[in-house]
Design goal:
By secondary structure, this protein is α/β, with parallel strands linked by helices. About 50% of the residues lie in helices and about 15% in strands.
Length: about 220
């Protein structure tokens, strides 16, 4: 039986979706990956898809979300762009995933040793890269003001960049904000460690509906 069927997705809570990501990453780092029969998954998804999560992550070749969270075809929407920045097309893709397909978890995933962040720190300017890197500058400024010892991985800019992307999504998308306020979706922020494969789920806004409502009203 297909794990992420229409019925499965309709009955899944945002927090359960978050738990699927945590459990998948644990399997990944412990080399206990599920046995994905790709031919079977092609057959199961030929007439429809029911991804339980939509993940905005960096285009870095080491950060494939399907692998990191041990998921298969049709399980997650993966949106990838250098520096996991936000633009109108990405917002539209997220809105489609949560409103029209029914994905229950919206995650922004950054990573250590991010080339986009390094380039932004160095002030690189070249072609369209200049505009993209300018979107990361606020995260650099924010990180300089922080003194956070709670992070598992020592890259404050990467953490700040994930937080800024989440805040921008909530601020700019009325669809995301409304569904979040109603508890229909959960928001998660994480940092992937390229050295050992583990994810620090440092921001989980799916636990308490009261907290969700307070944050959404603050935007």
């Amino acid at each position: 039986m297909r794990k992420h069927s229409k019925e499965f997705l309709e009955n899944l809570t945002p927090y359960q979706g978050y738990e699927l990501l945590v459990e998948g990453n644990q399997r990944f780092i412990n080399n206990l990956k599920a046995d994905h029969d790709h031919l079977e998954m092609i057959n199961e998804t030929r007439e429809g898809q029911y991804p339980f999560a939509v993940i905005l992550s960096c285009m870095d070749s080491r950060t494939s979300t399907e692998l990191i969270f041990d998921q298969g075809l049709g399980d997650i929407f993966s949106i990838r762009v250098a520096g996991n920045i936000v633009n109108n097309d990405i917002l539209a893709s997220i809105e489609y995933a949560i409103k029209y397909v029914g994905s229950k978890v919206l995650m922004v995933l950054g990573h250590t040793e991010c080339g986009a962040i390094k380039s932004a720190r160095q002030g690189v300017t070249d072609g369209h890269i200049t505009s993209l890197l300018s979107r990361i500058q606020p995260s650099i400024s924010k990180a300089l003001l922080q003194d956070n010892n709670n992070h598992l991985f020592h890259d404050e800019v990467a953490y700040a960049n994930v937080e800024n992307s989440l805040e921008e999504i909530l601020t700019r998308s009325d669809i995301v904000k409304e569904m979040f306020k109603k508890g229909e979706i959960g928001l998660v922020g994480g940092i992937y460690n390229v050295e050992n494969g583990s994810v620090d789920f440092f921001k989980n806004l799916t636990k308490k509906k009261k907290e969700n409502k307070q944050l959404a009203n603050a935007q």
